[in-house]
């Protein structure tokens, strides 16, 4: 069977944007949902799930977190993972994270004792008790040292996120099970992690596949030296085709999606699996999408939080959405400078705007 770029494009859409289902089933199917704190008009995790969960409203993941059997953790990015996926990543030995100096270990021990006594803690409680002060964060600004220590202990598996309170993580003590018994069991875990990541972001060109599996170093820093061999094993398991001089890979059980595509408009999150890989995006849809929230306003081309606009199996533009006086205000941009002259597109664009209003609990214009 000859595979074309059209086949890959349709496969990318059909496999990721499956028929909307329950929240629990969607999370189990995805395995991982990337998180981001920016709300424009909703957080990334909610924007991702609204396309895959029936009747989803912004904040449902946070509201129902404790009943869903999921965890927050680092996978290929930080986000929400199933417990079965998280179990493959832990324990993360302290020697590989990297190790703490003696003073930091003492702080962590005392903090863990405090959490064990309290049961569940808000970062403010910890800071009030210990007064850890300020540190320089990733962006060069000043952050609370308590938050950084809690984050580090969470990453090491000493704590877990029990729930969120107004978006703030509430932590409890935690202890993971034993690691793999031997080298074969370790390779099996790594391969399962690789397959989980590939199922989320495939089909992928070869360089993107390499990039994705290298990002498993965040999930399993203790095995980062084995990720190159994991990539070679993955390539042997996956289906493969060379299209326009590029090697593409996807799970062997997936079949090319052919035939008519569904008439539907979708506003996708900047970190949605369909658009997450910017290089793949450009190969499949022929233009460059960039996330510009951290770009100075005068240099932005698409907008602060541009959501790619998918029509059928083509990403034809983007939208920036804001809420003003309780009403949704959309701004659109199109690759071809104007929208399709198609009554079906106009109808479906209106339907997607109405779905977005419902998701945000705004009044529908059609009521």
Can you offer a commentary on this structure?
This protein has about 375 residues and is of the alpha+beta class. Among the domains are: about 95-175, Arc Repressor Mutant, subunit A, CATH 1.10.10; about 265-360, no CATH class. Helices cover about 40% and strands about 20% of the residues. The strands form five sheets. The chain has a four-stranded antiparallel β-sheet with strand order 11-12-13-14. A three-stranded antiparallel β-sheet has the order 1-3-2. A hairpin with a 2-residue loop joins strand 13 (about 315-325) and strand 14. Helix 9 crosses helix 11 (about 225-235) and helix 10 (about 205-215) crosses helix 11 (about 225-235). About 30% of the residues are buried.
Summarize the structure.
This protein has 367 residues and is α+β, with helices and mostly antiparallel strands. Helices cover 39% and strands 19% of the residues. The protein is built from 13 helices and 14 strands.
Number of helices: 13
What structural class do you assign from the helix and strand content?
Answer: alpha+beta
Radius of gyration: 22 Å
Low-confidence stretches: none
Shape: globular
Number of strands: 14
The share of residues in extended strands comes to 15-25%
**Average pLDDT reading:** 93
The span between the termini is 49 Å
Helix content: 25-40%
């Amino acid at each position: 069977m000859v595979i074309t770029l059209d086949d890959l494009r349709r496969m990318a859409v059909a496999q990721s944007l499956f028929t909307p289902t329950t929240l629990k089933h969607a999370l189990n199917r995805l395995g991982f949902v990337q998180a981001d704190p920016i709300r424009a008009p909703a957080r990334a995790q909610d924007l991702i799930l609204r396309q895959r969960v029936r009747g989803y409203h912004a904040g449902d993941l946070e509201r129902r977190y404790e009943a869903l059997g999921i965890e927050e953790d680092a996978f290929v990015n930080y986000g929400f993972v199933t417990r079965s996926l998280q179990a493959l990543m832990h324990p993360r030995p302290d020697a590989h994270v990297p190790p703490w100096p003696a003073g930091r270990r003492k702080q962590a021990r005392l903090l863990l004792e405090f959490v064990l006594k309290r049961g569940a803690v808000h970062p403010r409680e910890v800071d009030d008790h210990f007064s850890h002060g300020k540190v320089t964060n990733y962006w060069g600004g000043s952050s609370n040292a308590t938050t950084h220590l809690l984050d580090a202990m969470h990453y090491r598996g000493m704590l877990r996120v029990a729930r969120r309170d107004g978006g703030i993580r509430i932590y409890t003590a935690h202890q993971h099970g034993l690691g793999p018994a031997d080298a074969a069991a370790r390779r099996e875990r790594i391969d399962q992690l690789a397959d989980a990541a590939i199922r989320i972001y495939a089909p992928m060109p070869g360089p993107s596949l390499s990039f994705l599996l290298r990002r498993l170093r965040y999930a399993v820093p203790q095995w980062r030296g084995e990720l190159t061999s994991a990539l070679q094993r993955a390539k042997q398991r996956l289906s493969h085709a060379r299209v326009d001089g590029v090697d593409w890979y996807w799970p062997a059980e997936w079949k090319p999606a052919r035939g008519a595509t569904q008439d539907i408009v979708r506003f996708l999150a900047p970190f949605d699996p369909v658009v997450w890989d910017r290089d793949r995006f450009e190969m499949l849809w022929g233009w460059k999408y960039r996330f510009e929230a951290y770009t100075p306003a005068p240099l932005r081309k698409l907008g602060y939080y541009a959501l790619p606009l998918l029509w059928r199996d083509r990403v034809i533009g983007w939208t920036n959405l804001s809420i003003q006086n309780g009403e949704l205000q959309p701004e659109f941009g199109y690759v071809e400078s104007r929208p399709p002259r198609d009554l079906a597109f106009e109808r479906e664009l209106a339907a997607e705007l109405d779905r977005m209003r419902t998701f945000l609990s705004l009044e529908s214009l059609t009521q």
